[in-house]
Amino acid sequence: GEDIAGTEEEDGRAPTDSVPVEPLLGLASSAFDKYMGPYIALEEQSMDEQLVSSLEDRTVDTRGNHPVFTTSTKLFVYIKGSITRCT
Fold it and tell me: Distance (Å, rounded) from C-alpha 57 to C-alpha 75?
């Protein structure tokens, strides 16, 4: 190795080595990745069922400024719930 006795950074600190550290984010959840397939398949099936149901129901809510299919609101609520469950 090198003799670094007496060497200092410009601000007077001792020189340090920068060593990369593996991120911890996602480490625990990655243990479940290989088991998520059935859960994801169930979420996809449920979402497909919601979409089919939405296509069959043409009910329109006209109480607001613009007419809205009531199923569109239900779909957004379902998608938000799905995202919440998956995170």
Answer: 12
pTM of the predicted model, to two decimals?
Answer: 0.55
What are φ and ψ of residue 69, in 5° steps? -65, 130
Rounded CA-CA distance 81/47 in Å is: 11
Strands (DSSP E) found in 1-87:
60-61, 68-69
What's the pLDDT tens digit per position in 21-76? Answer: 777 777 777 888 888 889 889 999 999 999 999 999 999 999 999 999 999 999 99
Widest distance between CA atoms in the chain: 81
Any bridge partners for residue 61, and if so which?
68
